[in-house]
Amino acid sequence: MSEPSEQRYRIVVGFDGSEGSRRALVWAAEEARVRGAAVEVVRAWHPGEFGTDQEMEIIAQKTLETEASGVIGVPSGFEVTMSSVRGAAARVLVEHARDADMLVVGSRGHGGFTGLLLGSVSQQVTTHASAPVVVIVKE
Question: Which band of pLDDT confidence, cut at 50, 70 and 90, is reported for residue 2?
Fold first, then answer.
């Protein structure tokens, strides 16, 4: 009989480069250090924003890696993966967090009405995610 493999605690964090997502990433990195968790940073992108889907996928991934690394630097004490995924942000995050232990998002991203406490993505993931959701609000 083989021994069960030890599954590492996994935190998914939504990142779009906004101030809210930067705060969420910092919080998720600190939580990962405490828990010895793995962090998956996820950025959703839409077709046709900057070129073909193949070009956009490359641009989105490079942008994600550059911006997220600028926020957390070189990870110490936790593992980080970064994924840029085609699709609507809320749907992409809910899907990526399906088997995660936690989903972390900022309260607001780039768009919408700035006076609202929660943006549409944070509101949708708190409603539909199967993992516990942490929403980081502006201090």
Answer: very low
Average confidence score pLDDT of the chain: 86
The CA–CA distances, whole Å, from 17 to 4, 7, 94, 132 equal 38, 29, 19, 22
- pTM equals 0.85
Measured in whole angstroms, how far is the alpha carbon of residue 28 from the centre of its chain?
Answer: 9
Domain housing 48: 10-136
Number of domains in the chain: 1
Tokens of 28: 């998720």
Q: Which amino acid is at 23?
A: R
CATH number assigned to the domain comprising residue 16:
3.40.50.620
Alpha helices, DSSP H, located in 1-139: 19-35, 53-72, 89-96, 120-128
1 in a structural domain: no
Q: Which residues contact 36 (CB under 8 A, 6 or more apart)?
A: 8, 9, 77, 78
Q: What is the pLDDT of residue 117?
A: 52
- Domain contains 3: no
pLDDT > 90 fraction of the chain, expressed in percent and rounded: 60
With respect to residue 110, please indicate whether it lies within any of the assigned structural domains.
Answer: yes
